[in-house]
Structures are given as C-alpha cells and as structure tokens.
C-alpha cells in the first residue's frame, strides 16, 4: 500500500483564478462597486468578466483567499508542509492554479467537477486600492464527502493545523464544522480568516456557528467593524473591544487559548489573547514607500499565511506577526498575491 504523505498545515477554501485589471474606475461606477471592498458576484456583475478580457489588459494570477494564504505558508516553511483542498472545473483556469501552486511549493488535492468552470475573481485596481468580485462557479460545488475520501481524510487526520477563510462559509459551513469539531477533539490548531465585511454582514449565522472551534481568528479593520456591527457590539470602530469580545467567545477546546489578530494595512496590527484579554499587543508596521507598492491584492492573505507558517515553525506570537508583516510587504510589491523568486529567507 502506498504511503499517504502528511502535511503540517491543511487548508480548505474556494480556488479562484484572479482576473486583474488596472485603472478600473469606470468599472467600479458601472457595476456599483467600491474600492477596497469584496462582494460576491450577482447576476448584474456577470457581463463584467467578459468585459474585462475584451476591453482591458488582463493579468491572470492564482487567487482565492485560503489558497493565497496556503501558498504564503508554504513559502516560509520547509518543503511538503502545506496541502490545500477545494473544488475546480476541468479547464485551463484549474491548470493555471496547479502551476502556481507547484511553483510556490503548495500541494493541492482538488475535487474536480467535469464540465464545470473553475471559479474566478475580478480584481479591479484603482491606484493602490482593489475591489474583489468573485464568481465561485465550481468552488461552491465542493462536497463534504471529499473530506472523507481516501485521498483527503488521512491528510486531515495528520495535520496539526487547519486553516479556512470566511468566503468558504457562503456554501461550505457543514464541511468547516466537520473539520472544526475534529480539530477541537484532537487539540489541533484551527484558524479562520474573516475574509471580507460581507461575510459578517450576510453570513453571520454561519460565522457564529464555527467560531467556537476557532483558536486563531485573523481579519482586517473593516471586517472587524462589520462583525461588531452585525453582532451589536458597542463602538464598532473600537478594534480592541471587538478583538477582545471575539477572543472571549465560548470555545469548544478550552485547552488552547484563542488568538485574535486584526491588521490595519500600514497602521499598527492589534493582537488579543483569551489568556489575558486586557493585555493588548500593538505591533508597528514598517510602511512601504508608495513608489514600491504595485498591488495590494492578497496582502491580508499573505499576512495570514506568514503568521501561520511562523507559528508552525515554533516561533512566538511576536515573531509570527513580524513574519506576517514581511509576507504582506513582499506581496504588495508584486502583481497580485505572489511572492519573490528566488525564494527569500523569511524565518
């Protein structure tokens, strides 16, 4: 019998290929979009994907929040440390994703849906801002049974760390709950990214259902504010109060503390632990000169992957935040959620 490989970090999410265009102010106005925001594609957005390809110079970059973070974690860790699961179609977009994962050391175990299109994300850049409009396509056809398949189940069992982003909760909450419960029972580290404000605004019930199984929660300031507003917390703009409230939520596995990390772009990052929620840690960010910023798309995912990679490597929380900052800084100097090659020593 063939030996099943083991990976320290198991990630699950929506595999998407980013379709990036610059100078997209007219697109924002035409389709009612906002800079620095993310919304799921609605019927009114569907003509936009053809419009991007027909009317703009397009750059294709491997995307999907959890997949971006998985590639970032793979970048900082030793080879064969990270595996990623999601659902794709049998098309060129899926081939592009596999090639990017292979280049950056990420192993994937896709569920492939014959005849379906792989998910895509319109990334509309305006200056240093980005607006994300994903159309999930095959990604939302992920089946929970894939987690118990012979190809995937041993990987879930062997991993000590699990990561998922909030985007997956739009269709895959049952799968997240299944993994979360297994993680809590086995004292695995389970991490969740809040992903986008609309997750808290439109999928708060799904988000609340999985939070008890989360040991690490990562988000940015707009996502934290959306969560605070959706749950009726006082002072939604007070990130410390929000981080503390999330850290102290009921927890399925009380043996491990809950860590909440809120990033703020070039502003200081906030970290709160349930061990001592009054001990709020604030970490300065070394700003990147405007002249060096190419694209902010994926910077938050790069932070999350760097943070987790450092944690898996045995670093303390201060170092984890620092590695996250380094990966985010590297990402914004590249086109899309990519990293420098030849590989740079981060840890």
TrEMBL record:
Gene3D superfamilies (alphabetical): 3.30.1110.10, 3.40.1190.20
InterPro entries in alphabetical order: Adenokinase, Carboh/pur_kinase_PfkB_CS, PfkB_dom, Ribokinase-like
Residue span(s) of domain Carbohydrate kinase PfkB: 27-343
Keywords associated with the record: ATP-binding, Kinase, Magnesium, Nucleotide-binding, Purine salvage, Transferase
Record-linked Pfam families: PfkB
Catalysed conversion reaction: adenosine + ATP = AMP + ADP + H(+)
GO CC terms, sorted: cytosol; nucleus
Annotated GO MF terms: adenosine kinase activity; ATP binding
Signal peptide: none
GO BP: AMP salvage; purine nucleobase metabolic process; purine ribonucleoside salvage
Cofactor(s) listed in the protein's UniProt record: Mg(2+)
Enzyme Commission identifier(s): 2.7.1.20
Active site per database record: 301 (proton acceptor)
Pathway info: Purine metabolism; AMP biosynthesis via salvage pathway; AMP from adenosine: step 1/1
Superkingdom of the source species: Eukaryota
Enzyme class per UniProt: transferase
Similarity field: Belongs to the carbohydrate kinase PfkB family.
Function per UniProt: ATP dependent phosphorylation of adenosine and other related nucleoside analogs to monophosphate derivatives.
Protein name as catalogued: Adenosine kinase
Provenance organism: Pisolithus tinctorius Marx 270
Biological classification of the source: Eukaryota, Fungi, Dikarya, Basidiomycota, Agaricomycotina
């Amino acid at each position: 019998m063939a030996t099943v490989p083991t990976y320290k970090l198991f990630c699950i999410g929506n595999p998407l290929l980013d379709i990036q265009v610059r100078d997209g102010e007219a697109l924002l106005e035409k389709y009612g979009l906002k800079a620095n925001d993310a919304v799921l594609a609605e019927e009114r957005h569907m003509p936009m994907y053809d419009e991007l390809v027909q009317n703009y110079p397009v750059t294709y970059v491997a995307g999907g929040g959890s997949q971006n973070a998985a590639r970032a974690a793979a970048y900082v860790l030793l080879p064969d440390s990270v595996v990623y699961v999601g659902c794709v179609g049998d098309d060129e977009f899926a081939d592009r994703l596999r090639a990017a994962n292979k280049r950056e050391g990420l192993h994937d175990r896709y569920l492939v849906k014959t005849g379906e299109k792989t998910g895509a994300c319109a990334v509309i850049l305006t200056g240093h801002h980005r607006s994300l409009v994903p159309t999930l396509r095959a990604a939302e056809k992920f089946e929970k049974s894939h987690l118990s398949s012979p190809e995937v189940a041993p990987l879930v069992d062997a991993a000590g760390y699990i990561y998922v982003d909030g985007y997956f909760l739009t269709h895959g909450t049952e799968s997240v709950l299944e993994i979360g419960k297994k993680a809590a029972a086995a004292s695995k580290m389970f991490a969740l990214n809040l992903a986008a404000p609309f997750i808290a605004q439109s999928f708060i019930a799904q988000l609340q259902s999985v939070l008890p199984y989360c040991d690490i929660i990562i988000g940015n300031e707009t996502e934290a504010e959306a969560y605070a507003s959706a749950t009726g917390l006082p002072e939604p703009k007070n990130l410390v109060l929000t981080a503390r409230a999330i850290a102290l939520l009921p927890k399925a596995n009380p043996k491990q503390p809950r860590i909440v990390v809120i990033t703020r772009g070039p502003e200081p990052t906030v970290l709160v632990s349930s061990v001592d929620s009054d001990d709020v840690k604030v970490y300065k960010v070394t700003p990147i000169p405007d002249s060096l910023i190419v694209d902010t798309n994926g910077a938050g995912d790069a932070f999350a992957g760097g943070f987790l990679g450092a944690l898996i490597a045995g670093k303390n929380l201060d170092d984890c935040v620092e590695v996250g900052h380094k990966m985010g800084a590297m990402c914004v100097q590249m086109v899309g959620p990519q990293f420098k090659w030849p590989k740079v020593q981060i840890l």
